[in-house]
Structure formats: C-alpha cells, structure tokens
Specification:
The chain has strands spanning about 25-30, 30-35, 40-45, 60, 65-70, 80-90, 90-100, 115, 120-125, 135-140, 155-160, 175, 180-185, 195-205, 205-215, 230, 235-240, 250-255, 260-265, 280-285, 290, 305-310, 315-320, 335, 340-345, 365-370, 375-380, 395, 405, 415-420. The chain is an all-beta fold. The strands form seven sheets. A five-stranded antiparallel beta sheet has the order 1-7-6-5-4, with no helix packed on it. The chain has a five-stranded antiparallel beta sheet with strand order 2-3-30-29-28, with no helix packed on it. Strand 14 and strand 15 (about 205-215) form a beta hairpin.
Length: about 425
C-alpha cells in the first residue's frame, strides 16, 4: 500500500461542535460478559446533552477510587468538560466539575487530567484561551465539603499558548516531576511550527513557562501529540506523529547544563515498523520503552513496538502488528503491569460488521511476555451498542487489577466509561 508523508498541517484529528446543559447523571452499571471470561461494565454512557460527548482521553483514579476525565465536546458551552465518577452502591454518579467556555479558560480538551500533589486536577485545553492556541489549566475542589452532587470546581488558567515560539494546541495532560514542575508538549508552534516540549514552574507570582525543546521536523520529529514520560534519572521520553522520515519519531530529552539535549531514538520508516505514533511511551524497570503506532505494520493496522537500550544505542523491534481487518489500528498509550504484561486499546477492528464504514468498533488487548516473545490476547471487542465503541485513550488499573478506560463512540453514540474485570 502506498503511504503519504505526514506533516502537522495534514493532521486534523477531530472537528466537533455541540451545545449541552450542565447536570449530574446517575447510571446503573451495565454488565456484559465475554467469551474470554472478561466482564465489561459500562460505568457511564455519555448522551451529548447534558453530560458531555466524546471522551478522547482515558480516565485518572484518585486514592479513594474516584475516576476523573474529560470530554472533547459537550458541557454547558459545547466546548467539553471535566467530570468525576463516584461509586454509589451498584452504580456510579457522574458529576460535571467544569464546562469550558472558549474564553481564557480554553476549549475542546483532547487530553485527560493529572492529579496534582495538592489534590487539584491539571490538564490542557487544545484550543481557546486568550490567543486561541490552547491552555494549561488547574481545577481546584471547593474549599468546604460539598454534600450536593453538583459542586463545580474552580478553574484557573495557568498558561495560555500564543501559537508562536512558546507552542500551541496541546493535546495531552501534563506530567509532574518530584519538585512540582509541570511538563508537557504542544503539537504546533515553535520557530518552525513543529511543536515544542514545555515546562511550567510554580512561583509566587504564578507559573513561569519555558520551552525545553522545539522540534525542527527533520530529523528529530514534528507534532508531539502525547505528553512526556520520566525515567528515574529525570530524562524525558516521548513521540512525534510527524517529522523524522515523515512518519514520526521517538525521542529522549536529557539535562545538559542549564538546558536540555534531544536525542533521536528512532525514526519510523512507514512500512512494517509502523507510522504516526499518536500514543506516548511507557518504561519498564530495565529502561526499555514500549509504544504503539497508528498505521503501518504487516496489515497496516499499526504496531506495538519496543525500544531497548544497548551500548549507548537503541534497538527497535515490533512485538505485535494488529491487522486492520479483524484486530484494529490506532492503539492508545499502553499500560504495563509489574510482571511485564502490556494492556491497550485499539480504536478500530474487531467485529467488522458491528460499526459503520466496515472498520470495526475496536477492542481491549493484552500482550504477555512468553518464551522470549509475546502472546497476544483480545480481551474484549466493542459492538457500538450499549457497550460503546472506538476506544482512543489508554487504560489504567485499580489495586485489584481491574482495567478502566473510555470509548469515543464516534459512529453510533457519544462514548462511555467502562471497567473490564478479569
């Protein structure tokens, strides 16, 4: 199959608009069993009005087991919202915490939220803000205990991107370091409009923004859509969806004096190795990186890859290549257990008759290390019915090993939040 080069101007993920109202929704959990002995429970089904629409990102869990996430659309002003899901008996209560207005606060959050050391939520809005190029925001809970379901949190814009040298259009949640600084990526902006890696440092007068690295397109990459991952030495790792050989890259940022040095770990070839890695990377204790690509591979359904450090260099290998016809493409950021098993979502594939356009509704999968290789298992295939369809975000675990994620439901619905129990 012929493949075209990718630039940040070619990438237009979603264009959406809807206006909805603000209420809390109580949902009785819907449980669906599968042939693989997995039980999927739908914790909430979004309706577009009033509770939001298209949760592109996955969810975040606090110490009490509450789930937090965002929707790209919906909310009181149609620009998406931040929500909380709380367990109530056999069901869950969804509480909208904040609806984006499209002013200085931002609009259309594609990324999820990060729980800060102060208990507040931190995230990015992909557009809006003073200059229309997105924001980094903080959501603070009410100062006093609120016994009602509707208890809006206070939103504070920490930074508003200009779309110029500082970057613009962030698409993922920021990451904290141990000192309380925030790190993230902006998919555009910088001198060549190829995107940047940024840091926000707290001060008495607010947060100070600095650009750690701006991408040049070639050979280092362009358009970083995922946030960064830290190793134990404070080095940063991430991906770009363009640049390199025009098919995306994996990069590392290391401290160098008062600045940062970028190292290109891998540039995708756009063939069996994959292309367009929207998802970020995860690390294992040995320093190996794992990630996923949107397309390419043996069946053009994307790849799951591993990068292994070796004598100052990195060795790339494909550990699984889904076939678009049957198993899907567009894998979200992977989750890894302590025994090395990888879990992820595929936004398409599965039962080819269950979704519009004949590309399938997606699935949840498992990759287990086995005898020097990997064993692939499909844990659940979505039908775009009551269970939702097209999961684009990553997964998280609770302490019992249950998986939580979201579906966007772009073909037949407005998305859902689900739990998958072994």
């Amino acid at each position: 199959m012929a493949r075209m080069a990718v630039s940040i101007f070619d990438i237009n993920l979603k264009v959406r608009a809807v206006v909805v109202a603000l209420v809390a929704v109580f949902v009785t959990a819907l449980t669906i069993s599968t042939a693989h002995a997995q039980t999927l429970t739908v914790l909430h089904t979004f309706t577009g009005d009033p509770d939001g629409q298209e949760p592109i990102a996955g969810v975040t869990m606090d110490a009490a087991g509450n789930l937090y996430g965002t929707t790209y659309m919906g909310g009181q002003y149609g620009g998406g919202l931040v929500y909380k899901l709380t367990r109530r008996g056999s069901g869950w209560t969804l509480s909208p915490l904040y609806s984006f207005q499209g002013g200085n606060d931002g609009f259309g959050p594609e990324g999820g939220v990060t729980i800060g050391p102060d208990g507040s939520l931190y995230g990015t809005a992909t557009s809006g803000g003073r200059y229309g190029a997105g924001t980094v925001y903080k959501l603070s809970p009410p100062a006093t205990v609120c016994k009602a379901v509707l208890c809006p949190w206070t939103e504070t814009p920490l930074y508003q991107f200009t779309g110029g040298a500082d970057g613009g259009y962030p698409t993922d949640a920021p990451t904290f370091d141990t000192a309380g600084n925030l790190y993230g990526t902006a998919s555009a902006g910088g001198t060549g409009n190829n995107g940047v890696v940024f840091r926000l440092t707290p001060s008495e007068n607010g947060w100070i923004a600095s650009v750690l690295y701006e991408f040049a397109g070639s050979p280092d990459g362009a358009a970083p859509f995922s946030s960064v991952t830290f190793d134990n030495n404070g080095n940063l790792y991430g991906t770009t969806v363009g640049g390199g050989n025009n098919y995306g890259t994996v990069y590392e940022l290391t401290r160098s004096g008062s600045g940062w040095t970028e190292s290109l770990l891998y540039a995708f070839q756009g063939s069996n190795d994959g292309l367009i890695p929207y998802a970020g990377v995860v690390l294992d204790p040995n320093g190996n990186l794992y990630g996923a690509t949107y397309r390419g591979g043996a069946g053009d359904g994307g790849t799951i890859f591993k990068l292994m450090p070796s004598n100052g260099d990195w060795t790339f290998s494909v550990i699984y290549s889904p076939e678009l016809q049957g198993e899907g493409g567009d894998a979200g950021t992977l989750a890894r257990t302590s025994n090395g098993t990888l879990y992820g979502t595929l936004a398409t594939g599965g039962d080819m008759q269950s979704c519009e356009e004949g590309i399938g509704c997606g699935s949840v999968f498992q990759l287990s290390p086995s005898g020097g290789g990997w064993t692939y298992s499909s844990l659940y295939v979505f039908t775009d019915g009551a269970d939702g369809g097209n999961p684009e975000g990553g997964l998280i675990f609770d302490s019992a090993g249950n998986l939580y994620g979201t579906t966007t439901g772009v073909f037949g619905g407005d998305g859902s939040v689900f739990e998958l129990t072994p």
